[in-house]
Amino acid sequence: MRFHRARKALIPLATAAILGVTLAGCSSGGTPPASTTPKEDLSGVTLNVAADWSGAEQANFEKVLAQFSSETGAKVNYTSYGSNVATTLNTKIAGGDPPDVAVIPQPGLLKSLAQAGNLIPLSADTLATVKKYYSQDWIDLGSVDGKTYGVWFKGSNKSTVWYNTKVYQNAGADVPKTWDDFVAALQKVSDSGVPGLSIGADVGWPLTDWFENIYLRTAGAAKYDQLTNHEIPWTDPSVIDALTILSKLWSNSALIEPGGAQRTFGDSVTEVFGNPPKAGTVYEGDFVAGNITSQTKSVIGTDAKFYDFPSINGSDPAVVGGGNAAIQLKDNKGAAALMSYLAGPEAATIWVKLGGFTSPNNGVDVSNYPDDTSRQIADALVNAKTFRFDMSDQAPSAFGGTSGSGEWKILLDFYQNPTNIQGTAKALEAAATADYGK
């Protein structure tokens, strides 16, 4: 299903709310969170839960669900929708067989589902839990027309660049602060005999994160908001500037490991942290840590570290963030109980301890983060002078969240032919005009 909506119906997020999103998961406190699992017996209840997580993330989330099952007696079946969350979920809804609960990464999708009448608002008890443990900004991100539908179970810092410390040391490459230093570091790594950068872009979504980080630093927060809401065209000079920077990087075959258009994101992580490493650097969000831990023998904080996405033209520290919101699609007591469980700190703490996870829940004790690196990730998100939620996740799903179409496909085409800057901008504008409905 494609989404054609007017801008005002798309994402009614106040700029102040986006600026003020905080990672409440960095609260302090010396006691573990009290259980928020419902006390009622759910024996005999079967729930179907879906999300986009697979691999290590799926395994960790299934441990969260297993604890819910242990404490309530409910049976929970998990299905991964992979990269096609919007398409698959809407197909299930149209067929009359949606999951009881889904966890989705796109505020735009949440809002369209709510506006179509496909979501169940949070119960009064769950809403009270959310208000207790979440900042108002995260509540606003899960609300539509005065009703709250989403529990932002997972947050993410998508402005982290991960590197193999041994590769960098061998190459004599320093941790960069600026974009020019970043390119220079990649060159040093490549000169040492290992490609500087591995990219996994087979379905396109990692490329949207590249664009957003560069655009936020070159165009600024105000234009970022305007482009997010399609108030300026994708042919705007600010977009051309960002695409030009990407073009120079992606067209430099001396720095980038070949095959990125066919490589998965997970495989790009393995390329950098496997034995032997086949590249020195991989860009993506804090969830890279989970892939490193599950797919390689590298140790976070020793073999594998990250630095903040570099400053461009003197830009202040900035973070593009994301998250995954739990939503309820079936009106039954089991689904409502699971939503209540996911809203509390107990559920989030299970995954926090496993690594590769950052929680917006302020009931999660910072001491539960397993290492200095995960605390560094959280600190970077909290203290960023500029924060913006992932642009493509706020867009209509047909434009910003669907494999094989919209921004994903167009940027993947651009990655494979990075000289076509003007053509890429025009293609993005044409797709945005169709999918935003203006």
Number of helices: 21
Report the CATH C-level class of the largest domain: Alpha Beta
- Strand fraction equals 5-15%
From the spread of the alpha carbons, the general shape counts as globular
Largest sheet: 6 strands, mixed
Q: Which regions have little confidence, pLDDT < 50, spanning 5+ residues? A: 1-31
The number of domains is 2
Binned, the helix content reads 40-55%
The CATH topology of the largest domain is given as D-Maltodextrin-Binding Protein, domain 2
Question: Termini, distance in Å?
Answer: 18 Å
Oligomer: single chain
Structural Rg = 21 Å
Mean pLDDT: 90
CATH superfamily of the largest domain: Periplasmic binding protein-like II
- Going by helix content, strand content and strand pairing, the class is alpha/beta
Number of strands: 11
Going by CATH, the architecture of the largest domain would be 3-Layer(aba) Sandwich
Family: Belongs to the bacterial solute-binding protein 1 family.
Keywords: Signal, Transport
Protein name: ABC transporter substrate-binding protein
InterPro entries: Bact_solute-bd_prot1, SBP
